[in-house]
Write a structure and sequence with these properties.
This protein has 368 residues and is mainly alpha-helical. The chain has one domain (2-363). 70% of the residues lie in helices and 2% in strands. It has helices at residues 2-8, 11-31, 38-59, 62-82, 105-124, 135-154, 158-175, 179-199, 203-213, 224-236, 247-250, 262-295, 299-323, 341-359; strands at residues 96-98, 101-103. A two-stranded antiparallel ribbon has the order 1-2. Helix 2 (11-31) runs antiparallel to helix 14, helix 5 (105-124) packs parallel to helix 7 (158-175) and helix 5 packs parallel to helix 14 (341-359). The longest helix has 34 residues, at 262-295. The radius of gyration is 21 Å and the shape is globular.
Length: 368
Amino acid sequence: MKNKIFKNMEWWILIASILLSIVGIVALYSATQSNDFEELKKQAIWLGVSIVVMIVMACVNYEVWVKLSPVLYGISIISLIAVLFTKAINGASSWFNIGGFSLQPAEFAKIFVIIFTTAVMVKIQERGKSEINVFWKLIIVLLTVLIPVGLIILEPDYGTAAAYLVSLVLMLFVSGIDKKYIIISILIVAISLPLIYLFVLPEHAKTRIDVFLNPESDPKGSGYNVIQSKIAIGAGELTGMGILNGNQTQLGYLSPKTTDFIYSVIGEEMGFIVSGVVIIAYVILITKSLYVAKTAKDDMGSYIAAGISGIFLFHMTENIGMTMGLLPITGVPLLFVSYGGSSLLTSFIAIGILLNISGNRKKTMFMK
């Protein structure tokens, strides 16, 4: 039985994630030489822990986590409330500082919220898949995600909150939601975005959007980071300037270069080829994750895999997009690559779950 599980596992998911992690370690080696490689050392520890946890997650049937999801969801909500009372770092109350390490509950909550939302959707659809289109039942599904999203917005962390929403959209799409809801949602978003910009967003968020539209309007202020990022990526050309040799990276023009702008470091020092490999690795990771959602043995596995795919898709698109000036800067990390123990551990937990879902597929599913 175990041999069949290992045979069915989608190993390209693991290969892509490990490749991204290796590129991230190399980039962090270069980006942290000025502070005695402190962040690199911590990331290496987190990577080791993450791989062990991933192996455990891959060996535990995902149905177990669905059964435990109400408890995990409750812990997530409590932690998201508690973190609001911590000391703000860079204007956001998003981290618990424990023994020299920072833990971000919004990262861990991603997986728990996806699993609990899956449990709710499966329960609703016990009488048929069309039950998800009953309005009040759909509202219940939406609330399971909107409650943690609201708490994350209060931190404030708009980028992470958006990742939850993209994940929810993919889960609902896979569940067979009626097209009318999709059309209505698009109309609501189109109408609400200008109103949110004018009356809801704080000034610093508005500034980021304004800078995204015209970074040269404030080249020494709000537009500085994205301008330096684009210079770094452009300077790398085909093969890069070499590890430890990037001008923007080593002279301190990129900030924060270990998290938000790690892709700029890769572009400058490793060039277009390695930058392209990173994107290809992400495309493989996301497409294989979606394939797992398509071929899972049950709806439960499909919804979890779709939700995780949404997380990977958003983080790749937003982080790489913002470093190139194609999207507003939101502080979203490049998963597996950027420095951050919480995001790295959460990402490998997701990989472990995906491997388990794919491993439990029946052989006939491949013939669909």
